[in-house]
Amino acid sequence: MDHEILVNQLRLLLDKLSDKRGPVALFMLNTFGPGFAQPWHLIVSAKKFDQLSRSEAIKEMTTLVREHGDESFWRPLIRITVLKTQDPFVRSVNASMQVSPNEMETISDATVAGFEIPYALLVRSQSVVAA
Length: 131
Prior knowledge:
- The chain has four helices and five strands, in the order αββααβαββ.
- By secondary structure, the protein is of the alpha+beta class.
- The chain has one domain (3-125).
- The protein has a five-stranded mixed sheet with strand order 3-2-1-5-4, sandwiched between helices.
- The longest helix is centred in the N-terminal third of the chain and has 19 residues, at 3-21.
């Protein structure tokens, strides 16, 4: 899948997530380097997920991803992590990298809250009011 198609699919998925679960604090695809044939790790934080257990939130997000696109979109996703909006990682990303709707930021070789990010596409990063 090429970069433009991936970005468009991510934005559509983010819109669907926002419609279903309200404000999204973090929406990031993380991997070990550039190239879209690599396995990806989707990291998500949405206000309404804070009310669910971690397993319920991951199950709902997995269902949303599979309903959203064809197999070429979701097959490279090897992991989906759903974090609370007040998680230190989410708060650190939000504080250091604001990405609003219709924008996207590419991150390379960064460290946030003690976590190394070799390469990531940051589709949304914005603070949300705690539930």
